[in-house]
Amino acid sequence: MDHKYYKILIEKKTDKLIDDDELLILNKHLETCEECRNDLKEVEEMEKLIKMHRYRSPEDKIWTEYKGGFYAKIERGVGWIFFSIGIIVLLISGMFYFIRDFLFDPSVSLVLRLGVSALIIGFVILLVSIIRERVFFNKRERYKEVKR
């Protein structure tokens, strides 16, 4: 017997997505199928275990000490440097190929080239504006001196 359909119904029952007709079909099948009853029991036990387990995040003091540590600052700084270098290389090479293959292509109409160029320039200006705004406001956090 193919139990694929009933396994899906068991999952739907566990996730509380099953409708009344499907529940009736599943219950009828569970009366005769030991394997599916065991599967349902196993899934329900796992669900109970998962609900009992809660993630506890470290205290704020521990995070503050970690973030303020010398090695954490070095790691973050080096990571940002390599990330920035990678982004710069990708952007420069992308611009080169875009200019070479699209803007200098005589088969593409002038209106299309100007429109796409204006769209990209506008997007870059907006992106730079948003990044500047975020940097400005992050440096001037209102509640900086308030401790958690």
Helix and strand topology:
Blueprint: H1 4-14, H2 20-32, H3 34-52, H4 60-68, H5 70-103, H6 110-139
Helix pairs in contact: 1-2, 1-3
Q: Your description of this structure?
A:
This protein has 148 residues and is mainly α. The protein folds into 2 domains: 49 residues, no CATH class; 80 residues, no CATH class. The chain is built from 6 helices and no strands. Helix 1 packs parallel to helix 3. The model has no long low-confidence stretch (mean pLDDT 85).
Task: Please trace the helix and strand order, writing H or E for each element.
Answer: HHHHHH
Rg, rounded, reads 29 Å
Helix content: over 70%
How widely separated are the two ends?
59 Å
Give the overall form. Answer: flat
| Overall strand count | 0
List unreliable stretches of 5+ residues.
Answer: none
How many helical elements? 6
How would a textbook summarize the main sheet?
A: none
**Total separate domains:** 2
How much of the sequence lies in strands comes to under 5%
Mean pLDDT: 85
Tell me the structural class.
mainly alpha
Transmembrane segments: 77-99, 111-131
Organism: candidate division TA06 bacterium
Protein name: Zinc-finger domain-containing protein
Keywords: Membrane, Transmembrane, Transmembrane helix
